[in-house]
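Might you be able to review the protein record set out just below?
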Amino acid sequence: MFGAAAVRWCLSQVKGAVDDDVAEADIISAVEFNHSGELLATGDRGGRIVIFQQESKSLPQCRAEYNVYSTFQSHEPEFDYLKSLEIEEKINKIRWLPQKNAAHFLLSTNGELTDEMHRLVLF
């Protein structure tokens, strides 16, 4: 399903107050919808992943709203002693794996040394 017929998901939604004073760790660095568009994962420079779930199936896809489903710390700052290099916790990329059962799996990476796999079961 790659090419001209591929579905492209997008989101235009604001949650909370729009503030000019945003902490560096709170800046979103990665965004990825799952294959159905029901879930949205965002990663930030602080190493956190926030999973949003589509609010209501009764609304048309173009009007869908997303609410926070889960938030967790994926990456912590590390130090690579072999390279004498500090590895930041920033999430560089998120990818959802194809769903094979009731669980949803996603991969996250900080682009340096650490890749994480996370399992989500929706209730």
In short: The longest strand covers residues 66-73. Residues 9 and 114 are 27 Å apart (CA to CA). The chain has one domain: 24-121.
